[in-house]
Each structure stands twice: as C-alpha cells, then as structure tokens.
C-alpha cells in the first residue's frame, strides 16, 4: 500500500480500448478516417449538441473557437482566473484582451454578479465575449450567463473540459448538459489523460450553430475546403482548361488561414471506446465524492468540499484545507500526489506583465491559499481512498 503512487487523477485503459485502437491501426486510415466522424456523432449525442468537431487537443479547440468568433486585437473577453491557463490564452493567441473577473468563494465558479458589475461599468460594446469554466466538473448556470450575455451582445465559449456528463437544472426544471449548445455559442472539451475521457491528446468543440460548425471544419484543416458548393475560383481555373462544367476531382481551396489541428483516427477510436464507459466513470466519481464528504463532515480543518451536488461531474474533488502546504507535503511523503487547481491565472508572470496584480481578484487569491485536489478517478479503489482519508486525518491529529 505504502509503495503505490496515488495520483490526483489518471486514465483507465481497458482491453476493449486496446482492441479498438489496434483495429484502427490495422485499418486503411491513421488520420481523418471514419472513426473521427463516429466519435463526433457519438460525442454530440452524449452532450446533446447538434454538431461536434474533433481536434488535436483542448487548447486547439479553444483557439479555433476564438478564431471562429472573430477574436482580434481590441476584442475584450471575460474569464475566471481559477482555470487552466488555456481558457484565457486562446484570446491572446488572436490578439484579444483577457479581462479576469473573480470567482464565487463557495462554488469557485466565475461569479455572475461580478461579471454584471463589470459590464455595467462600461458602455455597451466594450466587451465581446465570456469564457465560463465548469470548474472541477461543477456546471456553470449558463441560462443565467446567456441572459446576461444577450443583454450585452456577447458570445459565450463554455470551457467544459472538466465536465463531460455534468449538467445544471434550468429555471424550467430542465436538465442542461454541459456542452449541449443551448446556452453557449461553442463549448470545448479535452481528452487529456487526467480528464474523464482519454485519447492521449485530444479535444472537441460542440455547438448548435451550423455556420460556426462549418467555419471550424475549415479552420481545423489549414482553412482548406473540398466542398464544391463553396468554391470561389472558377471551374476553368480549377481544371486548367476552358469550358468546364464541373470542378476536377483533385481540386480544393484554401479560403482562410487555418491550422492542422486534426485528431488521428486511432485516437478517435480510443476516445469513442472510452465514451462508451463515460457514465460508469461519472457514477464512480460521484461515489468517491460522497465518501470523501462523509469522511470530512465533522472535520474543522476542511471546508468547501463539493459534496453531492447534482450534476457535478467531479473531474476534481477539491477541499480548502488548513496548513495546505503541510498537508500537500505530508501526503506526498506517503506517495499520495494531491494537486493544486489552480494557481490564479492573472498572477502568472505572463499576465502580471500585462498589468494584473495581487489584490485584483481577492476571492481567487484567498481560495488559492487553501485549495487542494484529492485523488479522484474511477479506478481509485475503496482501499486506496480509505488510505488517503486516513493520512489526512493523521496529518491533522499530529498537528493538534
Ligand atoms: C485540460 C484543460 C484545457 C486544455 O486541454 P488540453 O487538451 O490539455 O489542451 C483547457 N481548459 C481546461 C479547464 C482544462 O482543464
């Protein structure tokens, strides 16, 4: 027991997954084969969106979202500092300005009231978009955000990397799945190994907007289209001959500056195989969360555990703990690799250089002093979780 590393999150690769990958490796396609579309269709169905676009990783997904929404110099976008840096960086890739807004100290999510105050303080048209993050797996109430965004003419990119399978219940009592495209223009997911569904590297954008969907398909592959209905140059030019009635078979056009952000077919096969078990994984995550919550109910050294919140996808199980650095080091001595999510993004040297400073986001900065993410992944055994809980209790007993 003492010798096995317990990380905060890890992938689970089954025999079935291996079979799916090997099958694809033995097929005619390595990249952009039939598995990509199969994965996209299945994923769109899983979250309840019309369209899905598979990509090389979640960061590429964010980048293309920002491009598709025309982020450029002068575009101002609001996001939370308590997220992985990519949520903000995608705006910077396109030359836009990131405006951080503080979290709610209880939910750790972007505080809609703070965003409203920010919007009210400037003339309409100052800001163009919001990137809310379903942080830790807890779904943002996007119905409320959409109402606010509509009022100010803003778009929304939902960063749902932590929350495939998560949801919130809207004002009419309907379940709104993360990434279903109902209350956001675009949503993004990551298939990095610590996330719910692993494909090595990998990402997905989901949307209900056909125009954005078509743009994304082009941006994913160098800005190139092979769809004859969209061609701009003439048939004669395309064929290199006169009086042509059709475009020749080889013809394609690069119409916009795109990237190579494709996922490979064998990664899509892995993602698809993992997606088939996604609900099982969420159930197990919820059971783990419940057990932590029960174990810590009467403990004064811990607060803020997200116990049994409906619709929580539990990518992370975060607590705020006294003597956090002591606890982190003690757990590490016992090969329990808890993690900190996140160092506030606005205080990364890159963003400090852009003018952000300590004191700008008091709730985020205070949260950072105490937060720690405990091991949370479907293959964490009961025995391992007991070991983790036991070590946490021992640490605080030794303190008192
Ligand atoms: C993982 C993650 C990303 C980036 O995804 P990659 O696939 O690692 O590029 C973006 N945002 C959040 C919130 C994430 O957790």
Automatic annotation (TrEMBL):
Q: Where does the UniProt annotation place the signal sequence?
A: none
Recite the UniProt keywords alphabetically.
Answer: Pyridoxal phosphate
Q: Which CDD domains match?
A: AHBA_syn
Which Pfam families did the record assign? Answer: DegT_DnrJ_EryC1 (PF01041)
Show the InterPro entries listed in the entry: DegT/StrS_aminotransferase, PseC, PyrdxlP-dep_Trfase, PyrdxlP-dep_Trfase_major, PyrdxlP-dep_Trfase_small
Q: Which GO terms describe its molecular function?
A: pyridoxal phosphate binding; transaminase activity
Q: Which residues form the active site?
A: 195
What is one process in the GO biological process aspect for this record?
polysaccharide biosynthetic process
Q: Does the keyword Glycosyltransferase apply?
A: no
Q: In its keyword annotation, does this UniProt entry include Glycoprotein?
A: no
Positions carrying N6-(pyridoxal phosphate)lysine are 195
Q: Which NCBIfam families match?
A: PseC
Query: So what family is this one in?
Result: Belongs to the DegT/DnrJ/EryC1 family.
Q: What's this protein's name?
A: UDP-4-amino-4,6-dideoxy-N-acetyl-beta-L-altrosamine transaminase
Q: What is the lineage of its organism?
A: Bacteria, Pseudomonadati, Bacteroidota, Sphingobacteriia, Sphingobacteriales
